[in-house]
Amino acid sequence: MSCRKKINENYQFIRAEKALGETVDYSIDYAKVLALVSPTDTILTSNWTITSNAVLGAMSINGTIATVWVSGGTKIGSIVRLTNTIVSAGGRTHVRVIILKIINRLAVIPNWDPLIVP
């Protein structure tokens, strides 16, 4: 399955949205920042933390990409801070933050009626 949100590693803080009830994967690709010093550097460890109001799920590393699954979020409009800290095989440490806003996905679809089939 392809990642729902793939984040550009050039930004320290990234803004994204997550709907109530969704379980979504977020990935950060550190390829460009790791290649600045060594074109063959990869992620050795990846640690994700999250503020309250959402839950961390499975985490993985694939070369220069760190991925985490996030579920929960109990209040529409609340803000969740998702932080990823990696250490590369070359010994470099990088930190990126994703700011998630919990939204009501149905509110995004105006004039939608589930009983009317187009």
Concise synopsis of the structure shown:
The protein is mainly β and 118 residues long. Helices cover 4% and strands 52% of the residues.
Characterise this structure:
The protein has one helix spanning 31-35; strands at residues 5-8, 13-19, 24-29, 43-50, 55-62, 65-71, 79-88, 93-103. It has a single domain, classed as Protein-arginine deiminase, N-terminal domain (Immunoglobulin-like, Sandwich). By secondary structure, it is mainly beta. It starts with a strand and ends in a 15-residue tail after the last strand. A 4-stranded mixed beta sheet has the order 1-3-6-5, with no helix packed on it. A 4-stranded mixed beta sheet has the order 2-8-7-4, with no helix packed on it.
Strand content: over 45%
Uncertain runs:
none
- Please list the strands of the largest sheet in the order they lie side by side: 1-3-6-5
Rg, Cα atoms, Å: 16 Å
Beta strands, count = 8
Report the top-level CATH class. Answer: Mainly Beta
The geometry reads as: elongated
CATH topology: Immunoglobulin-like
Order of helices and strands: EEEHEEEEE
Sheet with the most strands?
4 strands, mixed
User: What's the architecture in CATH terms?
Assistant: Sandwich
CATH evolutionary superfamily: Protein-arginine deiminase, N-terminal domain
Quote the distance from N terminus to C terminus. Answer: 28 Å
| Mean pLDDT metric | 82
**Count of the domains:** 1
Q: Helicity level, as a percent range?
A: under 10%
Tally of individual helices: 1
Query: Structural class of the helices, strands and pairings?
Result: mainly beta
Oligomeric state of the chains present here: single chain
